[in-house]
Amino acid sequence: MTNPVGPLSESSASLFERIRQVDEDGLEFWSARDLAGVLEYTNWRNFKSVLLKAQIACENSGHDPTDHFVGAIKMVAIGSDARREVEDMHLSRYACYLVVQNADPAKEVVALGQTYFAVQTRRQEVSDETAMAELSEDQRRLLLRQRIKVQNSDLASAAKTAGVITGQDFAVFQNHGYRGLYNGLTAEMIHKRKKLKKSQHILDHMGTTELAANLFRSTQAEEKLRRDQVQGKDAANTVHYEAGVVVRRAIAELGGTMPEDLPTADSIKKLERAEKKRLTAPKSKGKKAHED
What we know:
The protein is an alpha+beta fold. Helices cover about 60% and strands about 10% of the residues. The chain has two domains: about 10-125, no CATH class; about 135-275, no CATH class.
């Protein structure tokens, strides 16, 4: 079997690139029927079970399956010039990634698919990072803060599946992540170190570097909880702590400033209000509007 983490050849990539389609709005998608053929599934019923597993994985990751798995109809030839309608599904890139993760691992082409969609997903992430680099510091802070809000919701869902149920359970779970990243400091200790008021949230007073470190901690913890199907509060807490430690170690190896030593930023609420005002402000209508 081809090494699934090895380099992706042009020929193997073309297997999946060749069946990629673009709709009238310019959005890419893959036909589940076409993907089934490439993945060597000759029985649609068998492939539907893979689609179902992928949809469950999508929902468990905190995403709405209907955004990534869209029911469709496909016309197929049945001999002569006759055609008939068959059930199909249009898949996003993320949906395809989940499908190949849940497909038969004994198939060599499945391993190629796992590599292809992982590589393409990473390329999209790099493209997003390039676009983000063009934003101002304030814009990056706003974007990262919004991403963390969504990501922490996904992390909470994964933690709940592992057995972190009550509000107190989750507070302990969150502190394990902070302790790993901040060299033993809890959320309360970080709050005091930043000299914040009781009503102020620590995430609202982090700059882009600190927000990015916390986003990475959260995504890695969520991924490991789901991938390893971790069960039990203690085990989940350990995963979150270790994710923080790994991110801290990476910062150290790169010679970066430790998160607890980064400066306290102004409240992001001010930026949110300013951005909302900018977006809702009426556009100038020329000299008369200026004079008014």
